[in-house]
Amino acid sequence: MTIERTFSMIKPDATDRNLVGSITAMIESSGLRVIASKRIRMTQEKAAEFYGVHSERPFFQSLCDFMCSGPIIVQVLEGENAVKKNREIMGATNPEDADDGTIRKVHAVSLEKNSVHGSDSLENAVIEIAHFFNDQEIHP
Ligand code: GDP
């Protein structure tokens, strides 16, 4: 059994539609535990840093503007195979391709406004958690 931590965000399209509870319930139903959570606003600087891997993509500025357009919820999730499990319950990046019952299939609006973010590897999870949380804010 591998207990891991992963990083999750509930994006502005979802906070705007009052879906924080619904999405968190889907996460918790999967067996993952929310061990840190806060509601914040992204800055352009933080969004550009966070999505730096996409800086050359045509949608980069639109994505950064979207992520700054309203509050987001940042969370640390813990559980067995947390990185993979969270990616599974999120569903594919494009909600049109997402499996039935996934967060993005149920709630996402579009490829960009796709309601949630989740780390895609254990290595990135460590980096992303450190972007937003210090050890005193994480309570297993
Ligand atoms: P993720 O790991 O499933 O979130 O997907 P990526 O890391 O590939 O992309 C990061 C985020 O950029 C996605 O969750 C979308 O919000 C957004 N995004 C990805 N591809 C596109 C695109 O082709 N157009 C637009 N407008 N946004 C995109």
Protein described:
The protein has 140 residues and is an alpha+beta fold. The chain contains 7 helices and 4 strands, in the order E-H-H-E-H-H-E-H-H-E-H. The protein has helices at 12-16, 20-29, 44-50, 60-67, 82-90, 103-107, 122-132; strands spanning 3-10, 33-40, 72-80, 116-118. It has a 4-stranded antiparallel β-sheet with strand order 2-3-1-4. The protein is globular, with a radius of gyration of 14 Å. 31% of the residues are buried. The structure holds guanosine-5'-diphosphate. The site of guanosine-5'-diphosphate has 9 residues, from helix 4.
Notable traits:
140 residues; single chain; 4-stranded antiparallel sheet; alpha+beta
Structure summarized in a few sentences:
The chain has 140 residues and is an alpha+beta fold.
Low-pLDDT regions: none
What is the straight-line distance between the termini? 17 Å
- By helix and strand content, what is the structural category? alpha+beta
Helix content: 25-40%
Number of helices: 7
* Major sheet strand order: 2-3-1-4
Radius of gyration equals 14 Å
Order of helices and strands: EHHEHHEHHEH
Q: What is the average of the pLDDT values?
A: 98
| Biggest β-sheet strands, sense, barrel | 4 strands, antiparallel
Distinct small molecules bound, one entry per kind: guanosine-5'-diphosphate
Question: What is the topology?
Answer:
Layout: E1 3-10, H1 12-16, H2 20-29, E2 33-40, H3 44-50, H4 60-67, E3 72-80, H5 82-90, H6 103-107, E4 116-118, H7 122-132
Antiparallel strand pairs: 1-3, 1-4, 2-3
The protein binds guanosine-5'-diphosphate (GDP).
